[in-house]
UniProtKB/TrEMBL annotation:
<keyword id="KW-0521">NADP</keyword>
<dbReference type="Pfam" id="PF02882">
    <property type="entry name" value="THF_DHG_CYH_C"/>
</dbReference>
<keyword id="KW-0028">Amino-acid biosynthesis</keyword>
<dbReference type="Pfam" id="PF00763">
    <property type="entry name" value="THF_DHG_CYH"/>
</dbReference>
<keyword id="KW-0554">One-carbon metabolism</keyword>
<dbReference type="InterPro" id="IPR000672">
    <property type="entry name" value="THF_DH/CycHdrlase"/>
</dbReference>
<keyword id="KW-0486">Methionine biosynthesis</keyword>
<dbReference type="InterPro" id="IPR036291">
    <property type="entry name" value="NAD(P)-bd_dom_sf"/>
</dbReference>
<keyword id="KW-0658">Purine biosynthesis</keyword>
<feature type="binding site">
    <location>
        <position position="234"/>
    </location>
    <ligand>
        <name>NADP(+)</name>
    </ligand>
</feature>
<feature type="domain" description="Tetrahydrofolate dehydrogenase/cyclohydrolase NAD(P)-binding">
    <location>
        <begin position="142"/>
        <end position="287"/>
    </location>
</feature>
<keyword id="KW-0560">Oxidoreductase</keyword>
<protein>
    <recommendedName>
        <fullName>Bifunctional protein FolD</fullName>
        <ecNumber>1.5.1.5</ecNumber>
        <ecNumber>3.5.4.9</ecNumber>
    </recommendedName>
</protein>
<comment type="similarity">
    <text>Belongs to the tetrahydrofolate dehydrogenase/cyclohydrolase family.</text>
</comment>
<dbReference type="GO" id="GO:0004477">
    <property type="term" value="F:methenyltetrahydrofolate cyclohydrolase activity"/>
</dbReference>
<comment type="subunit">
    <text>Homodimer.</text>
</comment>
<dbReference type="InterPro" id="IPR046346">
    <property type="entry name" value="Aminoacid_DH-like_N_sf"/>
</dbReference>
Length: 294
């Protein structure tokens, strides 16, 4: 197997996904007379968040959806933000609500997440959606782990019986990723900072999902020959005085051992916005009582 055939191209997959979503949105407009709408709320001037919100807005519009952007000063109070969330919850033109994290210290992020109508929680972070994922209900699934799952199923097909190791236990990626894999009948291990002999745990895995936010923590020789590696990490390091993005996995040494691996950048990252648009589409159809177009 050549190195190029081992690379899992999340960018190409996400482009196809967004094209499909655009077709579905056009169908809804023509047949049912409504346009899915996504509202994104940004508080403050965090540079990375501003870039991310701009990209979300551009891709929302490119898919034919309505984009509502709310850019608030970093002095915004929690009460003011909650009032905006309440307004968006009640707006029938807004099918999805996303509050860009992080938020300034005077705002409790969990209070904001809890205030969003679970049916409009396109990030999938609300406790109701987390509970539905854990119990097999039809909720909205967090975008990044859902994107990871689609890449795995595209590469491997049926995941049943495979041993998956998820490194990281956050509510945003690690825990929902483990639940999604369990729902696919994988045998799942969640590894974290307290795990004893992490390299040995990883060496037994058919699937490795790394989501810890530590540059190249997972070494290439930890990867079992023929395993599939999904690297969620996006870390900026300096190499010869220049900035470079790397994942949580030591890519160069893992590549020749893996049957498939996501690069950084160009792997999981592009999938997140694609799944955000899909969640908005799903939410819009559910709220209108319309079947999701094929």
């Amino acid at each position: 197997m050549s190195d190029s055939s081992r690379i899992i191209d999340g960018k190409a997959f996400a482009e196809k996904l967004r094209a499909k979503i655009a077709e579905q949105v056009a169908f809804l407009k023509e047949k049912h007379g409504f346009t899915p709408g996504l509202a994104v709320v940004l508080v403050g001037e965090d540079p990375a968040s501003k870039v991310y919100v701009r990209n979300k807005g551009e891709q929302t519009k490119a898919a034919g959806m309505a984009s509502f952007e709310y850019k608030l000063p970093d002095t915004t109070s929690q009460a003011e933000m909650l009032a905006l969330i309440d307004k968006l919850n009640k707006d029938p033109n807004v099918n999805g609500i996303l509050c860009q994290l992080p938020v300034p210290k005077q705002i409790d992020p969990q209070a904001i997440i809890n205030a969003i109508d679970p049916d409009k929680d396109v990030d999938g972070f609300h406790v109701v959606n987390a509970g539905k994922l854990a119990t097999g209900g039809e909720g909205l699934v967090p975008c990044t782990p859902y994107g990871c799952l689609l890449l795995l199923k595209d590469r491997l097909g049926d995941l049943a019986g495979k041993h998956a190791v998820v490194i990281g236990r956050s509510n945003i990626v690690g825990k929902p990723m483990a639940q999604l894999l369990l729902n696919e009948s994988c045998t799942v291990t969640i590894a974290h900072s307290k795990t004893k002999d992490l390299p040995d745990e990883v060496r037994r895995a058919d699937i490795v999902v790394a989501a810890v936010g530590r540059p190249e923590m997972v070494k290439g020789d930890w990867i079992k020959e023929g395993a599939t590696v999904i690297d969620v990490g996006i870390n900026r390091i300096e190499v010869n005085g220049k900035g470079k993005l790397v994942g949580d996995v030591e890519y160069a040494t893992a590549l020749p051992r893996a049957a498939g691996i996501t690069p950084v950048p160009g792997g999981v990252g592009p999938m997140t916005i694609g799944l955000l648009l899909r969640n908005t589409l799903v939410a819009a159809c559910r709220q209108r009582g319309v079947k999701l177009p094929d």
